[in-house]
Specification:
The complex is a heterodimer of chains A (246) and B (203).
Chain A: E1 3-15, E2 21-27, E3 31-37, E4 56-62, E5 68-77, H1 86-102, H2 110-122, H3 128-142, E6 163-167, E7 172-174, E8 186-189, H4 190-201, H5 214-232, H6 239-244
Parallel strand pairs in A: 3-5
Antiparallel strand pairs in A: 1-2, 1-4, 2-3, 4-5, 6-7, 6-8
Chain B: H1 6-14, H2 22-34, H3 37-53, E1 55-56, E2 63-64, H4 70-73, E3 81-85, H5 88-97, E4 103-106, H6 124-133, E5 138-141, H7 147-160, E6 166-169, H8 185-193, E7 196-197
Parallel strand pairs in B: 3-4, 3-5, 5-6
Antiparallel strand pairs in B: 1-2, 6-7
Helix pairs in contact in B: 1-2, 5-8
The chains are: A alpha+beta (246), B alpha/beta (203).
The structure holds zinc ion (2 copies).
């Protein structure tokens, strides 16, 4: 069969030649996919509505020699709420960039698909930080980098005290006895540690009930960023804009 | 074929142009070589001439061969209206539609968080200085109706709102995801008529 149907969340759209665009999708059936959307920038294009970044669409794809292309498309959900505010758009960009970076093509994962779909469904301007942290922790766990927040990564004893250290390289917290000065570490309070555990456990649609104070927020942000950047071996591009909005 | 000779170099230069792949670059190179030498001479002179004489207008940042550009110097334009666009080609499209008689500001791009393009990569600083030093009553944000255009409009509205200048966005008779440069004149002038005020609050 040269044609096949996918349920796709649009991650990214990049201008190619003329009015064409290269679209990065995360599909339920095949995982991440890069496809060509011919002529979508033209006023008459019927596909355009279905390939806007951060929307959920049913797409008919056609296999090609080098790259598959979009034959037809029908938007299912465009997530109007996240488009109304800068924070919503910036966070959606960040989540999409995470998925693009931590998944490979043609490697479907229904957990990742539903995580992103749920996040876009509830994403609005407010609470976007909490949602984004929870998403990042869950996505990293799902692709094999689950942070260890209960026991010390060296001696397996439960961590005690009102301050603990998180080691991005070891992927977990360290107790006071095992902590050495040589390894890069991020200080987190016990309160922030509890918030981190809640962020990982709570369902996406319940996250708006979690309240995190400013200083805990800064610790959590620093910990998650260091963890992601360690595994990615680079900085996320959307970070710059998100930081600018604060 | 020799990889470092003049033909290879020509193909190489063509393939640096946007939307030109290696095959097309090769076709263009052989086209130039099959034409009489005057054609190549004319092309080379036009390229150099344009590059030397065209620069950004110091007022609106549009591309021009005079400074300020013809639009910025015109006494006939409405001095209380400013239209902000992404690209010089958007000015061309709007001028063709004849629906707008104010002044322009060209951003030379749009905010794209995922590509790492932020306000500092655009002419946002020049825009804010211009608003401070002139008496514009309304700023019309004519960025494209797509994610980058939306982010840019929301960001600019947040910057401009505190000054009390009215900020509006083109009505989207232009459908979602469309590009200004491909819109027809009627749609474009209608979207000017139906423009709506935007207030971008901090959440
Ligand atoms: Zn220990
Ligand atoms: Zn000018």
């Amino acid at each position: 069969m040269r044609e096949y149907l996918v349920d796709a969340i649009i991650l990214k759209s990049v201008r190619a030649r003329d009015a064409d665009r290269i679209i990065t999708l995360y599909t339920k059936q095949h995982g991440k996919k890069r496809v060509m959307a011919h002529g979508v920038d033209r006023a008459v294009s019927k596909k355009r509505g279905s390939v806007q970044p951060f929307s959920y669409s049913k797409l008919l794809l056609r296999r090609g020699r080098e790259i598959d292309s979009i034959d037809q498309g029908e938007p299912i959900e465009i997530f109007q709420d996240l488009r109304q505010s800068l924070e919503g758009l910036a966070t959606a960009s960040y989540l999409a960039e995470l998925v693009d970076n931590f998944t490979s093509e043609d490697d479907p994962d229904p957990v990742v698909f539903n995580l992103l779909l749920d996040a876009f469904t509830v994403l609005k301007g407010d609470c976007s930080e909490v949602l984004s942290w929870a998403f990042e922790l869950k996505l990293l766990s799902q692709v094999g980098y689950c942070p260890c927040l209960e026991e010390c990564v060296f001696c397996d004893q439960p961590v005690k005290g009102d301050k603990v250290f998180f080691l991005p390289e070891q992927g977990g917290v360290v107790c006071n006895n095992c902590k050495t000065a040589e390894v890069p570490a991020i200080l987190i309070s016990l309160g922030s540690l509890e918030s981190l555990k809640a962020l990982m456990r709570w369902e996406t649609r319940m996250l708006h009930q979690i309240r995190i104070g400013m200083s805990a927020g800064r610790e959590i942000q620093a910990m998650i960023r260091a963890f992601t950047e360690y595994h990615l071996e680079k900085k996320m591009k959307s970070c710059n804009f998100i930081d600018l909005l604060k | 074929m020799n990889g470092a000779g003049p033909i290879a170099r020509l193909i190489d230069e063509f393939s640096r142009l946007p939307g030109i792949g290696p095959k097309t670059a090769q076709r263009l190179a052989f086209f130039v070589l099959n034409e009489p030498p005057e054609m190549a001479g004319g092309l080379a002179r036009a390229l150099l001439d344009a590059r030397e004489k065209i620069h950004r207008c110091q007022v609106c940042c549009d591309l021009t061969d005079t400074n300020p550009c013809n639009i910025c110097r015109s006494p006939k334009r409405h001095s209380d209206l400013l239209c902000v666009v992404e690209q010089p080609r958007d000015v061309v499209a709007i001028e063709k539609s004849r629906g707008f008689k104010g002044f322009y500001h060209v951003l030379h791009g749009a905010i794209s968080p995922m590509s790492g393009i932020g306000p500092n990569d655009l002419t946002v600083r020049q825009l804010m200085e211009r608003l401070l030093n002139n008496n514009f009553k309304e700023v019309i944000l004519a960025t494209n109706p797509n994610v980058e255009g939306d982010a840019t409009a929301l960001y600019l509205a947040r910057l401009i709102n505190p000054s009390g200048i009215k900020v509006t966005r083109l009505a989207h008779g232009l459908s979602v995801g469309a590009s200004l440069e491909y819109a027809d004149g009627i749609t474009l002038s209608k979207s000017f008529e139906g423009r709506q005020e935007i207030i971008s609050s901090r959440s």
